[in-house]
């Protein structure tokens, strides 16, 4: 095969169940869509803006009336700017006061604490504009947000062109251009000075650096405190981070009783600043002589409240002003489950034989693990007996023996497991396991395991099959047609002559990837897809490269976008929306268990396969996230508060997006849509949306829990992860196993004559991919060595 290169779209009739046949208008067909429709998509460009209607004042966004009608572009800021150094600029108190007042009601500053706000103001730099100066040019790339110190400005749409219009004016104390702080999108209007003027500017890199520094510093401090608590040592790094994020800051004045002896305890505390007295007194002031102990910053108390509702054994009183971090037992349980279950789950993660299990599958086993106790000298396992259960040692020690009375072959302690092969077969036990102290174990038998997950051997066999890779030689592929063209090259429909299997070959021009600063996104996409073998995620069959191009050989998904069908239907029934949402939930559960966040869910990124099931495509924004990420990326309608506020996001962003998706499928438009992007962001941050009569009460409850502003309390991000969503009453009676086996009837199926049916795509023939960037595909960094 020769060089090839990129993406497109189309329209055609759908064969539906209980749905009339409709046509897709060709006017909506764009070359950027075809790649998605075969299972791949154009990678987002960092300078890209939402492909939507623009309004004045440097703002742009989707119109409420057109939401769900036009394709929405995604946005992203710089991938990594960790080397950026923030510079402080001196200001008078009067100037600081003017800036503070100007930004007070701005959506990007609404939830910023005083310390962070002051740090942002510190970085703002001074600039002047003479009468007639163009400060912002419509269509230009955006970097700065401005506060006007003095002078006046006019805002124009289409300045200097037919139909130009002045839409706003600014004067001292005004601010404009705030969208530039989030991502680099073309300015929606031109701003011209109408007098000599002075401005203070804040650039996006400084804004992002300050917000990241503030958020990460706060979280790291909390994590450090949490790690110091011995009873929480069993938590994973992700669980510790989640717990730290949920801690509530509390302040107590001198001599204030924080805990009173004899009361029922339900809250745990860590001292972040100050000191407290531990005393037997239950009222009145306390001094050093009446204190049993004095605890300082970094100490903790009340931790038993996370386990039991015992009464407090002593009082805790503030010694001077004290700052605390607290978490109540219910909050802990909501996040991670009972502490005992957390330990069980942690133990299961360490069982090598169970490594093929997903986190969700391990969670299902936790309730079946039964505690048992043995006295010193008791035999827990007898050599030669048939095995039917395995054990995890919770307390005490046991020894492994070949024969009673002989020297032990091994000593097992807390957290160790034994007898796990009993989950595979009932073969005779090979050794004796004897308690060398009083012990407590957790027992899981094979019958319980099989009733939940099926035979373990079947799980292991499926896991091994997923590792099998086909060897497809690049030179063997035969081009059938070009499916579409786009930014990085083109996508071709190809066939393997021996197997007759068709694939979509995505061809990416290296020089353009470098020019558009998409190296990390491209490599991320490959890394994610190589780990993914899931029925609702597009499959990557192979990758290739040469001097000019990178190639991704993908499975074909020829039924078109869910977006197209939703646009034609306007909205779905709850049952239809439930089916498509379930496919997404299953895919996200799989991704999250492997540490990945998807970060760009929308109907445009869901393709319909030949059976009517949807597959998630376009993994350019997918990223492995262990703690928090601070990259602004996604589609404006679907951005959660934590991305808009640059406070750091987790995998919980995907569950927020799921709530938006379900709402849009049922209502026909996203819940927060507004023609002014910044107003839409205000709506998102304030939770300003409403349900119509189309939403049942169970669905309202589900969406409300998915659109939880606090990501630590968002459904899907709690103790049972995706299982909490699967078990929600809106999904009552839904057969998840049948879904994963693709045994459910889809709401409709695309009418495809054969695997090479391209009727959902325009005929591109051998057309050129369009304008390309000049340049070398080798920038000397070796960035594509792992391709």
From TrEMBL:
Residues 477-731 form the Protein kinase domain. Its cofactor is Mg(2+). Residues 755-787 have a biased composition (Acidic residues). Its EC number is 2.7.11.12. One of its GO terms (molecular function) is cGMP-dependent protein kinase activity. ATP binds at residues 483-491, 506. It comes from the Eukaryota. Residues 46-77, 747-787 are annotated as: Disordered. GO terms for cellular component: cAMP-dependent protein kinase complex. It is an enzyme of class 2 (transferase). One of its GO terms (biological process) is anatomical structure morphogenesis. PROSITE patterns: AGC_KINASE_CTER (PS51285), CNMP_BINDING_1 (PS00888), CNMP_BINDING_2 (PS00889), CNMP_BINDING_3 (PS50042), PROTEIN_KINASE_ATP (PS00107), PROTEIN_KINASE_DOM (PS50011), PROTEIN_KINASE_ST (PS00108). It catalyses: L-seryl-[protein] + ATP = O-phospho-L-seryl-[protein] + ADP + H(+); L-threonyl-[protein] + ATP = O-phospho-L-threonyl-[protein] + ADP + H(+). Residues 108-228, 231-342, 353-470 form the Cyclic nucleotide-binding domain. Keywords: ATP-binding, cGMP, cGMP-binding, Cytoplasm, Kinase, Magnesium, Metal-binding, Nucleotide-binding, Serine/threonine-protein kinase, Transferase. The active site is at residue 600. Residues 732-787 form the AGC-kinase C-terminal domain. Belongs to the protein kinase superfamily. AGC Ser/Thr protein kinase family. cGMP subfamily. This is cGMP-dependent protein kinase. It comes from Palpitomonas bilix. The lineage of its organism: Eukaryota, Eukaryota incertae sedis.
